[in-house]
Amino acid sequence: MSSVEFKENTAITVFGASGDLAKKKTFPALFGLFREGYLSSTTKIYGFARSKLSTDELKDRIKPFLKTPTEESKSKIDPFLELIEYISGPYDSPEGFQSLNQAIEKFESERKVETPHRLFYLALPPSVFVDVGKQIKEHVYAKNGLTRVIVEKPFGHDLKSSRELQEQLAPLFTEDELYRIDHYLGKELVKNLLVLRFGNQILNASWNKDSIQSIQVSFKEPFGTEGRGGYFDDIGIIRDVMQNHLLQVLTLLTMERPVSFDPESVRDEKVKVLKAFGEINLKDIIIGQYDKSEDGSKPGYLDDETVKPGSKAVTYAALPFEIHNERWEGVPIVLRAGKALNDGKVEVRIQYKPVASGIFDQIPPNELVIRIQPNEAVYVKLNAKQPGLSTSTSLTDLDLTYKNRYSEFWIPEAYESLIRDALHADHSNFVRDDELDVSWKLFTPLLQHLEHEDSPEPIKYPYGSRGPKELHEFLQRHGYIFNNGNYQWPVTKPQL
C-alpha cells in the first residue's frame, strides 16, 4: 500500500444513519476508505438519527453491506465498527445535537486535538437540510477548526425551490464548507474525462464542431419503480438523473480546458459552458412512460399501487441540446434516460463526421464510446481492411476495458472517492451554487411544461424494450448515423 496522507482525529457524523442511503452507501464508502488505508484509524464516526437504536443495533444493520473483496479485508470489519457510535435525537431541536457535541468534544479532548476537523454527512431528504443545518451551526460547529457539510441531491425541485434552499443554507455555511454531492462526479470514468480530453492531443485536436457529428449521453435501467412509484411520481426521470447526473457528465465533455486542476478553475469552466446552452426546444422532445411488457410478465408504471391513478410521470426522456459557442455551434447533443428498458448501462457516445466519399462507399463513421457503468470501458470504433485478400472494410475497435487493463488496481466507488475529496477539501467534483442555479434555469421551463394541467401525454413503451419507437427517427434527426450493423463487441476466440 502506498503512503497515504491521513486526516488524523477527524469526527465524522452521518445524519440519517438508520436510513437506506447511509446503510447501503455512506457507511460502506467509509469502510471502503478504511479498508484500503485512506481513512485513519484515529477517525471517530457518529451515526445520528431519530430512530431509537443502540450502537450495536446500528452496527448490525451496517455490517451486511460492508464489502470485503479479499479474505484479508474481512479482518478490517471489526476495527472499523469500533470507530462507530450512535446518538439518537430529533432533527429540529437541540437535545440530540447537544449530546453529539459533548461526545465529539470528549473525543477531541482525549486525542488532544488543537484544530478540530468535523465532517457532517446529511444522508437526509432536502426537507430537513435547513433544520439540521441550523442545529449543526448552533450546537456542533467547529468554531476554532474546520467544518465540512455534505448534502445529497435533490438540491431543490426547480429553480425557485433551489434558490430558496440556497438562501436558507447560505447564512449557516460558506460555499467552502458546503459539498453538494452528485455521486456521478465520483465515478472513475467521469473523473477521467478531463485527462482523456485534455491529456491526449489525438482527442483534444478533434474535440469540436469541425470533427464531431453528434454527442449522446444515455442512461438505461432494466427495472421499473418496483413499488417506489409514490416517490418517483413527484420526481420523474428528468429530475432523477438528467438535470444532475447526465448534465454533469455533459458539462465535463463540453467545457473548455481549465487553467489548472484547482477546484474553482474546473468549476468556472463548467459554469461558463452551461451559460452557453440554448433553451430546450419543448416541441422537439420525447417523453415516455413504460407499460407492461409484451409478454405480460412485467407490470406497467400505472400498475404500481403506489402510483397516482392516471399519473403522467415521465419514466423515459430524450432531450436535444445546443451549445452556442465557437467550439460546439451546430453540433446536435442528446441526453436520454429511461427505466424498465432492455439493458442497464450509462455511456457517452461521440460520433465523428463521415470521411469524404470517393474510394469508400458508405463507410461507417468513427465513434468514441465511454462506458461509465457497468464494466467501465473506453473504446474507439475504427474502420479497417478485412484480413486476407479482400479489400472490403469492417468496423473494429481500439479497446480499453478497465477490468482487463487495470485488474490489479483498486478502483474506488463513487461515494468512496467523493467522501475522500471532502475530507481533503477538494471541491472539484462537487456542485457549486452558481452551477446549480444555471442548471435549474435550463430545466425548469421543461419541467413546468410537463407538469401543468394541460401537460402532454407520455408515449407508452413496453417494459423491457429499447424505449419509445420514435427514438430511432429522433436520433437520426439529431445527427446520429446508424451503421450497417456489421460491428460486434469483440469476443475472445476459444483456443483449439
From TrEMBL:
<keyword id="KW-0119">Carbohydrate metabolism</keyword>
<dbReference type="GO" id="GO:0004345">
    <property type="term" value="F:glucose-6-phosphate dehydrogenase activity"/>
</dbReference>
<comment type="function">
    <text>Catalyzes the rate-limiting step of the oxidative pentose-phosphate pathway, which represents a route for the dissimilation of carbohydrates besides glycolysis. The main function of this enzyme is to provide reducing power (NADPH) and pentose phosphates for fatty acid and nucleic acid synthesis.</text>
</comment>
<dbReference type="InterPro" id="IPR001282">
    <property type="entry name" value="G6P_DH"/>
</dbReference>
<dbReference type="GO" id="GO:0050661">
    <property type="term" value="F:NADP binding"/>
</dbReference>
<dbReference type="InterPro" id="IPR022674">
    <property type="entry name" value="G6P_DH_NAD-bd"/>
</dbReference>
<dbReference type="GO" id="GO:0009051">
    <property type="term" value="P:pentose-phosphate shunt, oxidative branch"/>
</dbReference>
<dbReference type="Pfam" id="PF02781">
    <property type="entry name" value="G6PD_C"/>
</dbReference>
<dbReference type="GO" id="GO:0006006">
    <property type="term" value="P:glucose metabolic process"/>
</dbReference>
<dbReference type="Pfam" id="PF00479">
    <property type="entry name" value="G6PD_N"/>
</dbReference>
<dbReference type="InterPro" id="IPR019796">
    <property type="entry name" value="G6P_DH_AS"/>
</dbReference>
<feature type="domain" description="Glucose-6-phosphate dehydrogenase NAD-binding">
    <location>
        <begin position="14"/>
        <end position="192"/>
    </location>
</feature>
<keyword id="KW-0560">Oxidoreductase</keyword>
<dbReference type="InterPro" id="IPR036291">
    <property type="entry name" value="NAD(P)-bd_dom_sf"/>
</dbReference>
<comment type="pathway">
    <text>Carbohydrate degradation; pentose phosphate pathway; D-ribulose 5-phosphate from D-glucose 6-phosphate (oxidative stage): step 1/3.</text>
</comment>
<protein>
    <recommendedName>
        <fullName>Glucose-6-phosphate 1-dehydrogenase</fullName>
        <ecNumber>1.1.1.49</ecNumber>
    </recommendedName>
</protein>
<keyword id="KW-0521">NADP</keyword>
<dbReference type="GO" id="GO:0005829">
    <property type="term" value="C:cytosol"/>
</dbReference>
<feature type="domain" description="Glucose-6-phosphate dehydrogenase C-terminal">
    <location>
        <begin position="194"/>
        <end position="481"/>
    </location>
</feature>
<dbReference type="InterPro" id="IPR022675">
    <property type="entry name" value="G6P_DH_C"/>
</dbReference>
<comment type="similarity">
    <text>Belongs to the glucose-6-phosphate dehydrogenase family.</text>
</comment>
<keyword id="KW-0313">Glucose metabolism</keyword>
